[in-house]
Amino acid sequence: MTEFGNTQDDLYLGSTIEEIYENDPELSLDNALENTVTMELLEDVLHDYWEGIAADSNEIEELSKSDDYKLYTVKVHALKSSSRIVGIMKLGDMAYELEMAGKAAGNGDAGAVDTIRKKTPEVLAKYRSYAKIFAPVFEG
Asked: What is the pLDDT of residue 2?
């Protein structure tokens, strides 16, 4: 069975923000509107989120391969917060796990470094999937 929130070409999630949120169980329009108050502001915030996916994910990917756990932690914290603001709750939770691993890695926890190296690609794949999911709303 196909899950929503992946990047398969045949996956239909919609062409409006409302349709996308309605058709993806990993998204919460209620949470997004609680944070942004109006659909107009949600659209603006979501557009900024969408525009930053490529650059932000590439930066997090590079940091995950470095020893700069402080900056890595800051970047995944921002991903967690921004994802939760726009109602992408599962991704926010996944980024939180990386944030905690980044803090622990910064304190010399070798297991946390392993967690970063193992789980960052999965989190970034999910993050990058939203570029395609929201493309019908923001492209063109």
From this structure: 33
Tens digits of residue pLDDT in 21-37: 999 999 999 999 999 99
- Cα separation, 16 vs 22, whole angstroms: 10
- Residue labelled with tokens 């930053």: 52
pTM for the structure as a whole: 0.89
| Pairwise CA distance, residues 131 & 140, whole Å | 14
Kindly write down the DSSP assignment for every residue of 4-46, as one continuous string.
TTS--TT----SSHHHHHHH-TTB-HHHHHHHH-SHHHHHHHH
Pairwise CA distance, residues 105 & 113, whole Å: 5
- Mention every residue, 6+ apart, whose C-beta is less than 8 A from residue 138: 47, 50, 51
| CATH class belonging to 17-138 | mainly alpha
Structure tokens at 102: 């980044």
**Count of beta carbons in the 10 Å neighbourhood of residue 26:** 19
List C-alpha distances in Å: 130 to 65, 88, 90: 23, 9, 12
Contact 89, 26 (CB under 8 A): yes
Q: What phi-psi label fits residue 20: left (phi over 0), alpha (psi between -120 and 50 degrees) or beta?
A: alpha
